[in-house]
Amino acid sequence: MSAKRFCVKVYGCQMNVYDADRVRTVLCSRGWQEVSEDEADVVMITGCSVRAKAEQKVWSELGLYEHSWQKDQRPVVALTGCIAQRLGEKALARFPYVRLVAGPRHIGLLPDAIEQVAAHPKSRINLLDTDPREFHALDFDAGDVTIKRENRYKAYVTIAHGCDNFCTYCIVPYVRGRFISRKPDDIFDECRMLIDDGVKEITLLGQNVNSYGKDLGLSFAWLLREVSHLDGLKRLRFVTSLPQDFTQEIVDVMAEEETVCPSLNLPVQSGSTRVLRLMNRKYTREEYFDKVRMLRERVPDVGLTTDLIVGFPGETEEDFEESMSALREIRFDLVHSAAYSEREGTPAATMEGALPVELRLERLNRLNELQDSITLEINRQLEGQVFEVFADDAAPRGNGFLQGRTPQDKVVIFEGGRQLLGKFVKVRITRAEAWCLHGEVIE
Ligand code: SF4
Questions:
Q1: Could you tell me the fold of the domain covering 386-441?
Q2: For the chain, how far is it from start to end, CA to CA, in angstroms?
Q3: Which of 172, 180, 209, 275 to mutate to test the pocket of ligand 1 (most atoms within 8 A of CB)?
Q4: pTM for this one?
């Protein structure tokens, strides 16, 4: 086999980044060299299909290889991830250089398949998922190999794949298949490998981490406690949580285990029970409020964020006002908001009562304006306070500045040399903005 140079391009969520990092790790352990796109013999593109925009971007990227392929028959392109699951057949038919397509549940077969198309560039391999319960895990013994990742000190670890919830707006169960938990020993081994390699903060990852273990007779609260006890781990987080499965036991672990950070993303999606029903979210507004109360009673300093969709089909002005009042009453630290956009193949895409796009955007603006002022108010109250900040990266603003996060997951920018990277530093907050805090190191 001659081709040994590859490049990976990820367009998508953390799940795709995580999967791509595992494939990179295995290829490097087999002697492949990671190079720039121009030099690569194989380009693996992995992407998200949750938003139509990301799909369009990947599709237009694929077209860009036409020229080099016609010129010297390279690179071979492997399209993977949920985007391949939705558009893989179409890509095989349209682009002669797309030689491999694989769904997210075939990740374990990817390294072999990439080697095969590299060795035989005329071959074509279709590994799209056909059975939503089938799963080919990519487990590997890292040995001397370092798990590839963006950040030296922080890492994600997937604990479950897929989702069984079928929220009516969401494409995930169709492209990532049914829910399946990873075996606890695989999770512990991966966490230990990362800790041995210098990772101090781990985020457990899944579409709905709170369901972890239902298929194994275990619980997420148990897993969280076990991982929090791993030697050398300083901070533990998890994402994403589904409100109906968020339990008192999980809250107890958050309150009792020092390693588990007081931060939570609990997607509300709408403040209106009527809209939540249309979304097939299995909780009411009141039940969501109860979960927040339960959490804040035991973890009073928790940093709480949420995801919220505005302009869902049939959302009335009253429903929207209920989302606004939920923000006023709960006072989230941050809201990841989005105007509803149709995803072909989901029940919501054909529901009656679709709102004009302008109205969706107008509501989104009103909601963001409200939340920005709440976030700023909350952040201003932090001025003068001291936090233990994990300095995990250089700040984007440049030389001499680092960025880190408080236990509550607030971003703090502060002046400091690179010798502080990977360290926990005491920082006093000097100035607050809606998107980040500024501070000075006091210790
Ligand atoms: S819980 Fe709902 S929104 Fe989240 S991945 Fe599953 S179907 Fe999608």
A1: OB fold (Dihydrolipoamide Acetyltransferase, E2P) (2.40.50)
A2: 55
A3: 172
A4: 0.89
